[in-house]
C-alpha cells in the first residue's frame, strides 16, 4: 500500500516538474474566425489554420510559425489583395511557417512575399495576375515546391539576397518579364522546374554564387538561361530552346511548299505536250 502511494506521488511530482507539451490547435476559417488574418492572429506557434473554399479579400500577414492550409486547394481558395499596394500574402521574419494550397492575385507588389524569413515551406500554391508571383527577400533555408506562378506583370519568382533555398517542381510561364530572376543569392538549388513562354529570360542568375541549376525546362523564352556577373554556379541537364527555334518549323513548311511548286512547274515544262 505504501509502495503504491509513493509511486503515485512520484508520478504526480514528475508531471508538475516536467509538464507535457500542449498539443497544437487546429483553427478553422470561417467556422472559428471569419477571416484568415483573424485566425492567424489568434493562433499560437505551431498551430494549424485550415481555410475552407472561398474568395478572401484581405492581405495576410504571417509573423509566427503557423501552418496555413487551404483544404480545397488553389482552384477553390483565392486570396484577393484587399489593398493592391501590398502583397496578397506576406511572411515577415517568421521561422518554420508553412503555406499550402492557396491562389493569390491582384497585388501590385507580390502574390506572396517572403521577407527576412527562414525554414518556410510554400507548396501547391498558384499566383497569377500580380506584379510578381513569388518574391523572396532575405529569406534562407526555405522550400518552394509545386507552385504555379503564371501571367504576372514582371516575374514568376524574384529572389534577392536569399540563400540556401530549394526551388523544385514549380511552373513559371507567360510572365511578362522573366520566369525566375535570382539576384545576389547564393547556394540555392533550382531543380526540375518548368519555366516557359516568358517574355524575356526563362531563368536569369545575376551576381550570385554557388547555385545549382539542373533539370529545368526553359522553353520558348527569348533566352532560356542567362548567367551574368556570377561564378561558381552549376548549370547542367537543362532543356533550353529559345523562341528562335519556333520559326524554323514554319520556315521549313514554306520551303517545302516552295520546293513542291518549283518541282511541279519543272515537271510541267519537261513533260508538256
Give, in spatial order, the strands making up the sheet with the most strands: 1-2-5-8-11-14-17-19-21-24
Q: How do the helices and strands follow one another from N- to C-terminus?
A: HEHEEEEEEEEEEEEEEEEEEEEEEEEH
**Gyration radius over CA:** 26 Å
CATH 4th-level superfamily:
Single-stranded right-handed beta-helix, Pectin lyase-like
Largest sheet: 10 strands, parallel
CATH class category: Mainly Beta
Shape: globular
Question: How many structural domains?
Answer: 1
Terminal CA distance: 126 Å
Write a structural description:
By secondary structure, the protein is an alpha/beta fold. It has one domain: Single-stranded right-handed beta-helix, Pectin lyase-like (Pectate Lyase C-like, 3 Solenoid). The chain has helices at residues 2-17, 36-42, 244-270, and strands at 26-29, 48-51, 54-57, 60-62, 67-70, 77-80, 89-92, 98-100, 103-105, 112-115, 121-123, 126-128, 134-137, 143-145, 148-150, 157-160, 166-168, 180-183, 189-191, 201-206, 212-214, 217-221, 223-228, 234-236, 239-242. Strands 1-2-5-8-11-14-17-19-21-24 form a ten-stranded parallel beta sheet, covered by helices on one side. An eight-stranded parallel beta sheet has the order 4-7-10-13-16-18-20-23. The longest helix has 27 residues, at 244-270.
Amino acid at each position: 500500500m505504501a509502495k503504491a502511494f509513493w509511486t503515485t506521488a512520484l508520478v504526480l511530482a514528475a508531471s508538475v516538474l516536467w509538464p507535457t507539451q500542449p498539443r497544437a490547435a487546429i483553427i478553422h476559417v470561417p467556422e472559428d474566425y471569419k477571416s484568415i488574418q483573424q485566425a492567424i492572429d489568434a493562433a499560437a506557434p505551431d498551430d494549424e489554420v485550415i481555410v475552407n473554399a472561398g474568395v478572401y479579400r484581405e492581405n495576410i500577414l504571417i509573423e509566427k510559425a503557423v501552418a496555413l492550409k487551404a483544404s480545397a486547394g488553389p482552384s477553390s481558395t483565392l486570396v484577393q489583395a484587399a489593398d493592391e499596394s501590398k502583397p496578397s500574402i506576406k511572411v515577415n521574419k517568421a521561422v518554420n511557417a508553412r503555406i499550402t494550397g492557396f491562389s493569390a492575385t491582384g497585388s501590385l507588389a507580390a502574390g506572396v512575399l517572403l521577407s527576412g524569413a527562414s525554414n518556410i515551406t510554400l507548396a501547391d500554391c498558384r499566383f497569377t495576375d500580380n506584379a510578381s508571383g513569388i518574391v523572396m527577400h532575405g529569406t534562407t533555408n526555405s522550400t518552394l515546391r509545386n507552385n504555379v506562378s503564371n501571367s504576372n506583370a514582371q516575374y514568376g519568382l524574384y529572389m534577392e539576397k536569399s540563400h540556401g533555398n530549394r526551388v523544385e517542381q514549380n511552373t513559371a510561364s507567360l510572365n511578362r518579364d522573366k520566369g525566375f530572376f535570382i539576384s545576389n543569392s547564393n547556394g540555392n538549388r533550382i531543380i526540375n522546374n518548368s519555366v516557359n513562354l516568358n517574355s524575356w529570360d526563362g531563368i536569369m542568375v545575376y551576381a550570385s554564387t554557388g547555385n545549382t541549376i539542373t533539370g529545368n525546362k526553359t522553353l520558348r523564352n527569348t533566352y532560356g538561361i542567362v548567367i551574368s556577373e556570377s561564378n561558381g554556379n552549376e548549370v547542367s541537364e537543362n532543356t533550353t530552346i529559345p523562341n528562335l527555334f519556333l520559326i524554323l518549323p514554319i520556315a521549313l513548311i514554306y520551303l517545302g511548299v516552295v520546293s513542291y511548286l518549283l518541282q511541279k512547274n519543272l515537271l510541267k515544262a519537261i513533260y508538256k505536250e
